[in-house]
């Protein structure tokens, strides 16, 4: 049996073909979409959990070294790991929000897979993270279908990381293949996420069209210009119909991060000055919320940085705000701040303003954010997204008949309006913002695994 598997930056989902149509499977309770999150007692618990409770062995000598170090660390910390200690999805997020200091929490590991400069031990760790998440999802899918799932088509972005090019793409794909294989999949195939979304849209077409698929996910924006319709449906070779692709690691997470940076971080000292009058360095306020940047997170939460922050507090004109930043460090609140920004972004889609409540140990900050402030804050990532749309059309050398938008951030009226301004008089149609890619992957699997 096969599944279409959207291993997404924000959410994961899977689908099977049932009576000729894609059917999504519940993965967390009755929910078809499980947040791409994991929570554990320690960072080291993930590798031990795979080996001890799932009988999943490392795929390399580096992985074996990581496992030995993980087991030794947990023994030294007197941590007796039980299967229920590893949580996924909304359960993981809820535990983190209750007590962020005493758990290891990671969101969107997919964002890191194509990062440049990763050491072998880091690659092995990300492989373990992905494997644990995939194994959980595979188990939930098999529980739902009451069948063994052996094959999968996994969606992939056009580019995992724009800076690393094909080397980054290959690194990310290799991590996904090894993780999926260790999780129990026998045959693993890939398909571009916007192409998969296009295949789902194609099923509804009654005549051939040139379609620009714009998939704005949590981690990437991907565009594909494709010839689609009844003449092409069901063919195993679609290479001649794929006219152009563009993609970059800029997505919904970046909108949240930029909104947090512009509107929340001033309350933690950003835009402030030292006693000497020199403005405080911006990197101290960017790093804690750059949750999709391995090095930024490593730098901010390093032991050395705590001494820097304490010195910054002594030198600042507003030390009370830097004290809040130190609390972000001590309580590991970076993800929580970005979460507050995400909530604001969603609310401001149809509201003139929104009050973000940020709970700290000694106070609750109430930050009022206006709709125009949100628009101004996300201008940089929005511009990159629009540039990708233009690139795909220019590469293809032909204007599309229709624009098919999908992905969680495709719901944003701001982004839809910006795309409409760039490509006027071309209709924009919507599908299932979260499920189109998954459904298309299942359709492609139905063709490839027959």
Automatic annotation (TrEMBL):
One of its GO terms (molecular function) is ATP-dependent protein folding chaperone. CDD domains: ASKHA_NBD_HSP70_YegD-like. PROSITE patterns: HSP70_2. InterPro entries: ATPase_NBD, Heat_shock_70_CS, Hsp_70_fam, YegD-like. It comes from the Bacteria. Keywords: ATP-binding, Nucleotide-binding, Stress response. Belongs to the heat shock protein 70 family. PANTHER family: HEAT SHOCK PROTEIN 70KDA (PTHR19375). This is Heat shock protein. The lineage of its organism: Bacteria, Pseudomonadati, Pseudomonadota, Gammaproteobacteria, Enterobacterales.
